[in-house]
Each structure stands twice: as structure tokens, then as C-alpha cells.
Design a protein that fits this description.
The structure is a homodimer of 289-residue chains. Chain A has 12 helices and 9 strands. The first copy, chain A, has helices at 15-27, 40-48, 59-63, 78-85, 103-113, 157-169, 179-205, 210-215, 219-225, 232-241, 243-265, 269-287; strands spanning 5-11, 30-36, 54-56, 68-71, 94-97, 120-121, 123-125, 146-149, 173-176. Chains A and B meet through helix 7, helix 8, helix 9, helix 10 and helix 11 of A and helix 7, helix 8, helix 9, helix 10 and helix 11 of B.
Chain lengths: 289, 289
């Protein structure tokens, strides 16, 4: 593949940014990947692991001649990064992000780049593991995974196509939807499950018999709570960013649990079996997709 | 290995009973495995798959010359099966079960075999998959898994040792504890997580955007909800059998969720990060065990 662009700058070379860098280098999508971040040791590690070609700790220098700038930092750091790079972007540079909530990022971008900026393409790769950091990065992270782009109406269609091409080069399947729709869907499939898993592990951890409880945990528990090993700062940010949709989902879920505990209180096996059977059917169907 | 006993009779040749049969045959623990159940087609399938050596649909005939009888049926069927086999057991036969809740099974056994019967060893293999039925059975299901035995004080120690030997022959590690303790621990590590997963899938399934929600679900969701594919009847039985302990855990968990949703309502990032960080630490520790 002839390189589509010269330089991709990735700000934040952790699991998400680092894996994208590896995939782009392997695919030949760009001629070079410049990494940027606050911590020089991380960037040096990224060079050592051959994740990036060059690094800068000054974000203005980093984005200076970039054709694409990917901001892969925690949601709470987005606005500050956008403000730092805004004055230094070239007149054709396309900016995107990899945040797990999209409405707040779009607001942050508008505030930093201005309402008329039409080269910010909000994006979210639906991938990741419970690990974090550049040492967890790997080339295949986006292989056959979905990436959702949520550009607003004013965004230049060429800019959207360029970011879509970039993710396709990394092996992903790209879909486009509104930021509002994205945030609602992800609240259900990702944000709520993470909260439930964090909550369960913390709840069991408060029991007097905590050692016993973890000692007899089996595979189901292991799978169910794997995501509770995720980065707490990242998840605090996601919770605060997508607060409204997550609260909506949590309310629905709390009602659901109340229904189940009432059925238990009343020894109502019929009600339990109805819920469990509906869930099994839906889950089996999902499995066969 | 010289066969330890002549005949093991397994009532209920589904995933749990069938996998035990396969493991016992492979290990040479017994000379033959007799399968029993209500449905002749299942038993024929078990013969065809070489899971059992012989079958009976009449439980009295099945247990007639058995040294060990393993009752691996849903919790709601235990009492009835115990009543059917009680008059036909040999004077030395040891009976055990594989139910996921232990206090109710012990009560059922006492009612069927009499208060003085000292050869019933309640047991629970902490293993299984979300699949069920004899076609899902496999030899290695108990390999390196824990089996908890919860014999009451009156149970003959030789009987306990025989059942422990049987599970060890199947590859398992055997532990002993009280039925009360078992039921509390399992409510936290297994029963509550199953309820939470069933509840989440059913909750999402009720959304108007259900197709979208499942379409964008990633690996975390897949792992988190795998157990929602489990058998609804089995889980209704577990819920009703271990009602009190499960309700206790559910109350604690509902309080935990309320704490999290209040933190969200109040935009309290500090409170969220505290919970998430404690959970991550506990989960990482569990992973390293």
C-alpha cells in the first residue's frame, strides 16, 4: 500500500493510541507516526518498542506537520489537549479522538477549535482490554472490531473519509452515527456493565469472608468481573462524561433488580424463570450473530 | 489404577453428571457407570456417546447394586429422586449430589432417607459452563476445579472419604465446609453474578434500540453476559433454594449501586474513583492467585 498520508500524530500512546500506531505502521497507511504525551519515559518506551517513529513532549511541535492528529487521552484531559494543539495545527490537518463518550468530546473540541472548525471527526474504537499502557499495545487490537465515528453535520466529508480510511487500515469496520445515539448505546453495552462489575467486586470485597469468597470463585465470576480490572481514572471520566445516559440505564437496571428481588421475596419462581428465559434467548441470539 | 468401586450410578446425565461419568470411566475409579434419568432418549444418547455403560429409567433398578449414587438433577427434583431411590439403596451405598445450594438438599435428603441416615454426603462441584445436556459433557470439566463437600456432623467419615476420592479421581480438588458457609459464599461468587447477568441482558432487551445495543457490544459485554446463557430452570431452582443468602447479597449489591448512582448524580468523581480503584485492586489480586 502506498502511504495515504505522510504523518499521523498520536497524542497519548497507551493501549489505544499505541495499538493504533502499530497497526498504521504495519499497514503502511502513513510514512511515519509521531507520538506525544506528558510523560517522556512512556514516549521513550514507545520508541524502544517500535510503536512510534519519533516523539515530542511539546504538543505544538508534535502536531506541527501532521496530516492526522489522533487524541487518545482520558476524557478529562481532552479539552486541555485540544486547546494546546489548536494554534499549531496545519490548515488541512484532520483531528480525531478515541474517547468512549462522544457528546462531551464534541463540546470540548468546539470550545477549543471554534464552532466553525470542520475537521474534527469524533470517533470511538469499540475495542480494548482491561489492561492499559503502551506495553499492553498490540497490532491486532482493532482487527475486525467496530469503530464508531460521530461527526457533526458541519464536518467536512473528506475529513470523515480520511479518518474512516485510517481505521480501516488498522483492520476495523467503520460505522457512523450521531453522538447522542452512540452515548446511549454505549451506556448500555459498555458503561453500565463496567459499573456493575466494579460494584460487584467492591461489594464482595467488603464482606468479612472476602478471602473465602474469592477463593471459591469459578470461571463465570472470572469472566464476569474481568472488566473490573480496568483503569479507574478512565472509568471515572467516562461516568462523568456520559452521566445522563448512564444514570438512565442505571435506573432501568435498578428497577430490574428490584423486580428480581421482589420475585425472590415472594418465592415467585414463574417470574424468575420468565426473566431468565428471556435473557437466555436474547444472549444466545447475540452469540450466534 | 485398580477400580476403587464396582458401580457408580449417576442420576441425571447432563453436563454435570455426564462429565463426571466420562472422567470416572477414564480414570478407572469404577468398573462401570450406570446412568439413570427420566428421558430415555437422553440416556440412549449417553450410551451412544460412550458417557455411560448401562442405563435404567427405573431409579430403583438403577441404584440397586451401586456403591455410589450421584444425584445430578435440578434442585427442585432432588427430593423426589431421593424418595424414589431410598427404598432400593444397598446397605452400604453412599449417596451424594451435585446441587449448587446445599442447605435445602440436606433437608431433602433427611426427609427422604431419614434423620439417622449417615451415608449422604452433600457436594457441589464449582465447575460448569453455560451449556447444558449430555452433548455438552466432557472429560476435563473437573480438572483442577474445586469441589465443596458439606457433610453434616453425623455423616460417616468413610463415606465422606469415598466421595472425596471419587472427585479427586475426576481431577478435582476437594474442600469441606458447612452447608451454611457454602451457601453464603456461593451466593456472592456465583448466584448473584448470574442474576446480575440475566438482569442486564433482559434490561437491554427491553430497550427500543435493542438491535443496535447488541450490535455494538464488544468483548467486555460478551464475557460479562456469557453466564446469561445458562439454563433458566436450573437458575430458578438455585434462586429459590438459596433465597435467603441471595437476598442478603442482593440487598448489599443494591445499596452499592445506589451509592454509585448517587455519586453520579452529584458529579462526585472522587467517590467513583475510590470504588473503582478498590475493585480493581481486589480483582487484580484475585487474578494473581
Amino acid at each position: 500500500m502506498t502511504a495515504k498520508v505522510k504523518t499521523v500524530c498520536i497524542i497519548g500512546t497507551g493501549l489505544i493510541g499505541g495499538s493504533l500506531a502499530l497497526a498504521l505502521k504495519q499497514s503502511g497507511f502513513c510514512q511515519r507516526v509521531v507520538g506525544a504525551g506528558r510523560t517522556e519515559a512512556t514516549l521513550k518506551k514507545a520508541i524502544e518498542l517500535n510503536v512510534i517513529d519519533h516523539y515530542e513532549t511539546d504538543f505544538s511541535l508534535a502536531v506541527n506537520d501532521a496530516d492526522i492528529v489522533v487524541v487518545a487521552v482520558p476524557l478529562s484531559a481532552m479539552k486541555n489537549v485540544f486547546e494546546q494543539i489548536a494554534p499549531a495545527l496545519s490548515s488541512t490537518a484532520v483531528v480525531t479522538d478515541a474517547g468512549s463518550a462522544k457528546q462531551t468530546v464534541i463540546k470540548d473540541a468546539e470550545s477549543a477549535f471554534g464552532k466553525d472548525f470542520n475537521r474534527f471527526v469524533a470517533g470511538h474504537p469499540i475495542s480494548g482490554t482491561e489492561k492499559s499502557g503502551v506495553t499492553a499495545a498490540f497490532t491486532g487490537l482493532y482487527e475486525n472490531r467496530k469503530v464508531i465515528l460521530t461527526p457533526t453535520d458541519k464536518v467536512d466529508s473528506g475529513a470523515v473519509e480520511l479518518i474512516a480510511d485510517m481505521w480501516r487500515a488498522a483492520g476495523a469496520e467503520v460505522e457512523t452515527m450521531s453522538a447522542e445515539h452512540h452515548d446511549m448505546v454505549l451506556a448500555g453495552t459498555s458503561h453500565l456493565p463496567h459499573i456493575l462489575a466494579f460494584g460487584l467486586v467492591d461489594c464482595l470485597n467488603n464482606l468479612d469472608e472476602v478471602d473465602e469468597v474469592f477463593r471459591f470463585a469459578a470461571g463465570g465470576f472470572r469472566d464476569f468481573t474481568r472488566i473490573a480490572s480496568s483503569d479507574p481514572v478512565m472509568w471515572r471520566d467516562i461516568c462523568l462524561s456520559n452521566r445522563k445516559d448512564i444514570l438512565d440505564m442505571m435506573n432501568k437496571y435498578q428497577d430490574q433488580l428490584q423486580t428480581i428481588s421482589s420475585a425472590l421475596e415472594n418465592n415467585d419462581g414463574e417470574a424468575l424463570i420468565e426473566i431468565f428465559a428471556r435473557a437466555k434467548q436474547a444472549r444466545d441470539q447475540f452469540n450466534n450473530q
